[in-house]
Amino acid sequence: MHPGGEHERAVRAAGNAPYAAAWRRAWAFPDPEPPADRLVEADRWADELRAQGVRRAVFVTGGGNDALADAVDRHPDLFLGFAHHDPFAPDAAAELERAVTVRGLRGLKLFAPLLRGPLDHPDLDPVWRTADRLRVPVLVHVGHYGSAGGLSSSPHDSPNHLARVARRFPELPFVVPHFGVQHVQELLFACWSCPNIHVDTSGSNQWVRWMPYRLTLDDLFRRCYETIGPGRIVFGSDSSWFPRGYVGRYLDDQLRICREMGMPESDLQAIFAGNAVRLLGLPT
Asked: From the centroid of its chain, how far is CA 221?
């Protein structure tokens, strides 16, 4: 079997299943259901968001640009979507243009560990120029990919690569989810260098348990708040599967941390709504 083939992935998944099960048990999350029809799933998400009082939600991946755009079109009052195609494909810039101007998607999502080259590769310049002209944000995942058993590292996922791009496109907003995962130091210095780089808070952020030094979600919020400020921190829920649905406890935990830090309501409004509204170009 070739590296990364189905057999290898199955072996890794089986070997790391206890970690995933323990994580779900610790958070009282049920096991994920098998994948369902995408439009049926879209209707279910719409019901879930309305029940939770969520006014708008952004889906950053969804089976391809057209599949996700179809789901967004089904509930345009609730859903927004991001393009998520291969940026190294020959027609990547044209596909981003089509996804935004024709299909109505509102940004671009990239998984840096899965790319065939670094973010600052010259072949990606047409994509960056198109995103810059369209004024859409780019969400760039750096750090390990997937849960236990996934990719632990990659030569293409450093925030330093992103910083070199962000410096050349200073008006193009970039957002790095999960506080940059294991690249916290590099991400903070990238933010110091580039005011167009933002930090996203999404997920349980249990990766902190694997760091060689003590690091908590409280520490991450405090360090980002004290350095880059509330205008570049963006809340994300990382809600992705049923029957778990919308993960309100992530929101509750993060709000508690911010309130215990003594943040004024204006900063809470920015982090948990306003910054996303601005980046997405939504009416306030």
From this structure: 17
Per-position DSSP letters for 196-228, written without gaps between them:
TEEEE--S--GGGGGSSS---HHHHHHHHHHHT
CA gap 177, 159 in Å, rounded: 11
| 95 contact partners, CB below 8 Å, separation of at least 6 | 65, 83, 85, 89
Length of the chain: 284
Look up residue 133 and give its two tokens: 């002209």
Phi first, then psi, for residue 198 (nearest 5°) are -115, 165
Element (H, E) at 73: helix 65-74
- Strands 197-200 and 233-234: what pairing? parallel
Taking the C-alpha atoms of residue 81 and residue 274, their distance in angstroms, rounded to an integer, is 18
pLDDT in tens, 81-100: 999 999 999 999 999 999 99
Residues 148-187 as b or e (16 or more Cβ within 10 Å = b): bbeeeebebbbbbbbbbbbeebeebbbbbbbbbbbbbebb
Give the domains, in start order, of the chain with CATH numbers. 94-280 (3.20.20.140)
Residue pair 144/113 in contact by the 8 Å Cβ criterion: yes
pLDDT digit string (tens) for 48-65? 999 999 999 999 999 999
User: Hey, is 38 helix, strand or coil?
Assistant: helix
Residue type, 246: Y
DSSP code for 145:
B
Nearest to 202 by CA among 180, 218, 178, 224: 178
Contact indicator for 138, 110 with CB cutoff of 8 Å: yes
pLDDT in tens, 145-156: 877 667 787 888
- Report the DSSP beta bridge partners of residue 284: none
CA 274 to mean position of chain CA atoms: 17
